[in-house]
Write a structure and sequence with these properties.
Layout (H helix, E strand, L loop, with lengths): L4 E4 L5 H10 L3 E4 L17 E3 L12 E3 L2 E6 L9 E3 L2 E6 L9 E3 L2 E3 L12 E3 L2 E3 L17 E3 L17 E3 L1 E2 L18 E2 L18 H8 L8
Amino acid sequence: MPDETLLENVIPTRDALERLSHEGAPVLLRGCDLQALDLSRLDLADWRFEKCDLSRARLTGARLEDVTFDHCRAPGADFAAAMLSDTVIDGGDFGNTSFLDATLSDVSFRRCKMTGTDLSGVSATAVSFDEVLLVLGMLPNFSFRKARLNGVDFSEADLRACDFRDAVFTDCSLRDAHIVDCRFQGADLRGADLGGIRLTDASRFKGAVISKRQAADLLAQLGLNVL
């Protein structure tokens, strides 16, 4: 494999990055300013971004295989229709970022802020979330089947028709989330905050495992006390 190219603390142009893309060598960008830069449709496979600013950057249709975003800032960035495979987003701020209609395969989101992020229409396979803030996120029809969700905050998120079958929740929150038509059969919800869930919504948890405390909270809406 060709030697890695290092760009550090610079403000690169699209032309410069496009030339590097055509060369095919892996690239490491460290502390670079990519704000509002158009990177759409570029092949960035095997690139690594460390502590870069990608605020409002356009990566629509970009190829992002084996790419790592390490503690980057990308609020308002556009990843629509991008191809993410074996991609890692570790730390940083990806709030209000769009992944509309993107393809996500073996993608790992870790310890990052994704408030208001749009994951509508994605094609997702083996996507993991670990200590991720997804408050007000848009994830309709997303499949979390058999996922192990650790420290994920779905408060007020749009989770309509999501598949949570056999998922395990640890230190998570579903407080005030929109769960219409979700499937929770076999899910372990004992590690999830179900605050704001009305008893009329509880039928959606049919087949799931909840704790006695969670059951008591739901039944308290009927004025019943569980002893």
